[in-house]
Amino acid sequence: MKSPSIYPLGDTAAVVEFGGGISAATMRRIAALGQQLVRQPLPGLRETVPAYTTLTVFYDPACAYEQVAAWLRNALTASEAAPNTPVSPPEVVEIPVCYGGEYGPDLAAVAAHTGLEMNEVITRHAAPTYLVHLLGFLPGFPYLGVLDAQLTTPRRASPRARVPAGAVGIAGAQTGIYPLASPGGWQLIGRTPLRLFDPAWPEPTRLRAGQQLRFVPISATEFEKMRQMCRYKDV
C-alpha cells in the first residue's frame, strides 16, 4: 500500500495524495482521513474536498503550511492505523433512467464504438452497483465507478452547448449524471427524471460521496410520469 504524500497548493491549501488509481479501497482511505480531521480539528480549517485519489484541505492563510503538514501527518498516522470496523452495507440509491432515443442521443454512438448492441450497452450500464466517488464539475454531479470496461468510450469530439439536467453520460472510463443543464462533452446514453440538486433543499444535493447507486431502466412513459411527480425543472 503506497504511503500518501503531502504537498502545498498555493498558500491556503494542502493536498494529501494517496495514488493507487480509482478504487473503493483508495476512497475508504480518503474518507477515513476526512473523519479523522473532524475528530482532530485544526484551528483555521475551512474545508476538505475529496477526489478520486486526493483530499485537499483548505485553511486560513494565517496558518503556516508546516503546521498544517504536521497536523495532516499526525492525522494520517491515526487514520491509517485504525482498524477497519465492520459496518452494515450502505443503502443503495436507485436512479431511474430512460435509455436511448431523445433521452440518450449518443447510445447508438456508444454501441458502435464498443461493438455492442444498444440493448447490451443498457444492460451492462445498469448492471453494476456504483460507488459515488466524489461530487464535482457541477453542484451534485456524481462521478461513479466502476464502469464496465467494455463501455469505455471517449468524449464527444464536439461538446454540446447544452446538456439537459438529469442526463446520464459516459466519458472515457467514467459515468455520471448532470444535475443541472450545462455545456458538456460526455456521451449521453439516458436521462433520469429525478432532480439531483436544488439549493432550496436542506441538503441541496441528493447524492453524496460514499453512497452506492444503481441505475434502473424505465420507459419513456414512466419517465414522463415521474417527471411530473417530481415537479422536475428542466434547467
TrEMBL record:
Its EC number is 3.5.2.9. Residues 4-207 form the Carboxyltransferase domain. Gene3D superfamilies: 3.30.1360.40, Cyclophilin-like. InterPro entries: CT_C_D (IPR003833), Cyclophilin-like_dom_sf (IPR029000), PxpB (IPR010016). One of its GO terms (molecular function) is ATP binding. It comes from the Bacteria. Keywords: ATP-binding, Hydrolase, Nucleotide-binding. The keyword Protease does not apply. This is 5-oxoprolinase subunit PxpB. It comes from Hymenobacter polaris. The lineage of its organism: Bacteria, Pseudomonadati, Bacteroidota, Cytophagia, Cytophagales.
